[in-house]
Structure formats: structure tokens, C-alpha cells
Write a structure and sequence with these properties.
Layout lengths: L1 E10 L4 E7 L7 H14 L3 E2 L2 E14 L6
Antiparallel strand pairs: 1-2, 1-4, 3-4
Length: 70
């Protein structure tokens, strides 16, 4: 089963942005993810259409199960 961590942000211009991480650690907590998201915002590394990430909107882990038929 494939797992993906989805990190949701809003830019200073109000645009919604999602960053994804494949196969996140199993021991993640909401507190550690929020701290990491704040560090991403503070780093100023990511920019969308010339605007930096400004706020975190939430995170979730998505699990996907694929069954090959042929």
C-alpha cells in the first residue's frame, strides 16, 4: 500500500498549494508535522507565482491500494 503525506499551505496571495512526500515515516504526529510545516514557511524556499508560502492549512496521510489485474 502506497502512502503519501500531503502538506497544505496558502501563499501570501491566497493561493492554495500542496506539497507531497512519498512514503512518510510511520511515527509522525500532528505536532511534528506542524513544526516541519512552520520551518518550511520560515525557510522561504518555496515560491508559487512569485509569492512565498505564508500559512499552513493542514496535513494528511493518504493511503492508496492498487491491484494489478493483468
Amino acid at each position: 500500500m502506497a502512502k503519501t503525506l500531503q502538506l497544505n499551505f496558502t501563499t501570501a496571495a491566497g493561493k492554495k498549494v500542496m506539497l507531497t512526500v512519498d512514503e512518510p515515516r510511520a511515527d509522525l504526529t500532528s505536532a511534528t508535522v506542524e513544526v516541519a510545516m512552520q520551518e518550511i514557511i520560515a525557510s522561504g524556499v518555496f515560491e508559487v507565482d512569485g509569492t512565498l508560502l505564508e500559512t499552513s492549512r493542514g496535513a494528511r496521510i493518504v493511503e492508496r491500494h492498487v491491484t494489478e489485474l493483468a
